[in-house]
Predict the 3D structure of the following.
Amino acid sequence: MPTPFLDLYMEQGSDFAGQIGLVDVTNNPINLTNFIISSQMKQSVLSQNVDATFVVSTANAQGGLIQLGLSSANTANLVAPYRYLYDVVLYNTISNTITRVLEGTIFVSPGISTYPALYPPPPVPNVNAASSAANAASNFNNLLG
């Protein structure tokens, strides 16, 4: 049976999180209790370099529900606009077998704004404001003579 195909969409420079339900050939959830899950994305199947490795967690092991995640720092380094390829593989820790259970295309849309430009950090308060005010008043009085 061919591996199921699912397209994903991601925004460059933004955090990405997506929940995906994995099912077997009879459309029943895959019990992920004895599996290690891995997922990566590349620009092409011929590419030697992995462009990103997802943080993968199980949201519901018995229900076959996983979560894929990438930080904004990771997505900021992706070429956009661009189409990447990804897959999800399961390593069975009991039978020592590897199975690809999902593959697809990830469309990355380009980001325009960046976090610091949108929200500059707040000013750092002067912890010695009282002594600074006294020094300023003293300096002002000295100027006046």
Q: What stands out?
A: The longest helix spans residues 129-144. The two ends are 92 Å apart (CA to CA). The CA atoms of residues 116 and 123 lie 13 Å apart.
